[in-house]
């Protein structure tokens, strides 16, 4: 397995409060890695370190290293725009831009200077197909992205992310606002997407983590308690805390 991100001795502080403690983790290419743990345990904070979303918060201080492809420390040697092009993000609540379905997907490539209509058309179609949305919207590309259902909006946001041809897609509880049918569509989609992308997902749902991920990291109070193959974490965890959380004794 090829390592996509190597995280070394990562500490993160919000002012005086330490939210992440000495995180060491390897995230593998073309795998779905689930980050699980109770609310406030640091999993979303950690996810945001991988594309430097925490840079937007004034009081944040980060120590340690995060290497992309084993080479570049993303905090030392990497332009944040290049990083966010290579590492896309899908948020908890669908957040389409208030523009057409087409323009939502074409937004990123246009920002990078692409003007050729034929190329943009192809990118939009490929991204919508990649997000399993094309057949539902191909006759209505001029309609507002906000007119879609919640599940469709979330797939539109995934299409918007993959239009940039990232290497990694971060997902922060992408189905928590969706109904079971829309959730299943997103889960089926993740299985296909990992053929091309590395996916790291924060989820509150044990069942979802067990269904969709190859690897699972269990966070507790800002630390990683256990990391390994999802099957093993869920059937034969090494740590008592992991077992207690997975079986619902706390959290």
Summarize the structure.
With 251 residues, the protein is of the alpha/beta class. Helix content is 36%, strand content 27%. It is built from ten helices and ten strands.
| Number of distinct helices | 10
Radius of gyration: 18 Å
Helical residue percent band = 25-40%
How much strand content do the residues show?
25-35%
Say which CATH homologous superfamily is assigned.
P-loop containing nucleotide triphosphate hydrolases
Mean pLDDT: 95
What is the N-to-C order of secondary-structure elements (H for helix, E for strand)?
Answer: EEEHEEHEHHHHEHEHEEHH
CATH topology: Rossmann fold
Could you describe the 3D structure shown?
The protein is α/β, with parallel strands linked by helices and 251 residues long. The protein has a single domain (3-96, 164-246), classed as Rossmann fold. Helices cover 36% and strands 27% of the residues. It contains ten helices and ten strands. The chain has helices at 43-49, 80-86, 101-111, 117-130, 134-137, 150-162, 180-193, 206-212, 230-235, 240-246; strands at 3-14, 17-28, 32-36, 60-68, 72-73, 87-90, 168-172, 198-202, 215-220, 223-229. Strands 6-7-8-3-9-10 form a six-stranded mixed β-sheet, sandwiched between helices. α3 runs parallel beside α6, α4 crosses α6 and α6 (150-162) packs parallel to α7 (180-193). The chain is globular, with a radius of gyration of 18 Å. The chain starts with a strand and ends in a 5-residue tail after the last helix. The model has no long low-confidence stretch (mean pLDDT 95).
């Amino acid at each position: 397995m090829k390592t996509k991100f190597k995280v070394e001795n990562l500490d993160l502080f919000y002012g005086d409060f330490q939210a992440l403690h000495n995180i060491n983790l390897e995230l593998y290419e073309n795998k779905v890695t689930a980050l699980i743990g109770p609310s406030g345990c640091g999993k979303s904070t950690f996810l945001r370190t991988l594309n430097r979303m925490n840079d937007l918060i004034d009081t944040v201080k980060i120590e340690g290293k995060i290497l992309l492809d084993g080479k570049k420390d993303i905090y030392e040697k990497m332009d944040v725009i290049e990083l966010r092009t290579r590492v896309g993000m899908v948020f908890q609540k669908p957040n389409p831009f208030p523009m057409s379905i087409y323009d939502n997907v074409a937004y990123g490539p246009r920002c990078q200077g692409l003007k050729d209509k034929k190329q943009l058309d192809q990118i939009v179609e490929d991204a919508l197909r990649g997000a399993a949305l094309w057949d539902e919207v191909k006759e209505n590309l001029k309609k507002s992205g906000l007119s879609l259902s919640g599940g469709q909006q979330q797939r539109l946001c995934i299409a918007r992310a993959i239009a940039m041809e990232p290497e990694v897609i971060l997902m922060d509880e992408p189905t928590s606002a969706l109904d079971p049918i829309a959730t299943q569509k997103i889960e089926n989609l993740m299985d296909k997407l990992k053929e091309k992308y590395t996916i790291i997902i924060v989820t509150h749902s044990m069942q979802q983590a067990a269904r969709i991920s190859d690897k699972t990291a269990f966070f507790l109070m800002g630390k990683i308690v256990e990391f390994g193959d999802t099957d093993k974490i869920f059937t034969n965890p090494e740590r008592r805390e992991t077992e207690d959380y997975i079986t619902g004794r706390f959290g």
